[in-house]
Design goal:
By secondary structure, this protein is of the alpha+beta class. It has one domain: PH-domain like, CATH 2.30.29. Helices cover 28% and strands 34% of the residues. A 5-stranded mixed β-sheet has the order 1-7-6-5-8. Strand 6 and strand 7 form a beta hairpin.
């Protein structure tokens, strides 16, 4: 269980260590201004090959019908190493708009501990590896592109 901090659009095409710091600080500030003394987990993050599910929870901690789905192949970067809080796990996602243009959004969740945030980063990295391997063997990723370049671009940076 996590607390979903929200999303914010981010710019740039190269996602390197530290690229989520600014968006995470923005989301953290909004979160800390809005919260009361006790802010319970409001979501369940489930990372699987091909898809990541963010199940939103009601005030009783039960799953609602609302769920966000993220395609693993469209996640450009993820990390669990943030200065503002070591408990934050964030990922950059390529959102495709109705007109087929796209934007890069940084999503962030607060975990119960630094260890939990790092576990999510490792789970995301494993999900990407499985997704990438499957897409490569299915022929959806062509052999003429370097698998090292592509896989390096999507590596998890967990500090």
């Amino acid at each position: 269980q996590v607390t979903y901090l929200g999303k914010v659009s981010t710019t740039g095409m190269q996602f390197l260590s530290g690229c989520t710091e600014k968006p995470v600080i923005e989301l953290w500030k909004k979160h800390t201004l809005a919260r009361e003394d006790v802010y319970p987990a409001n979501a369940l993050l489930e990372i699987r090959p091909f898809q990541v599910w963010l199940h939103h929870l009601d005030l009783k901690g039960e799953a609602t019908v609302h769920m966000d789905t993220f395609q693993v192949a469209r996640i450009a970067y993820c990390t669990a190493d943030h200065n503002v809080s070591p408990n934050i796990f964030a990922w950059v996602y390529r959102e495709i708009n109705d007109d087929l243009s796209y934007q890069m959004d940084c999503h962030a969740v607060e975990c119960e501990s630094k260890l939990e945030a790092k576990k999510l980063a490792h789970a995301m990295m494993e999900a990407f590896k499985k997704t990438f391997h499957s897409m490569k063997s299915d022929g959806r990723i062509h052999r003429n592109s370097s698998s090292e370049e592509v896989s390096h671009e999507f590596e998890s940076d967990d500090g």
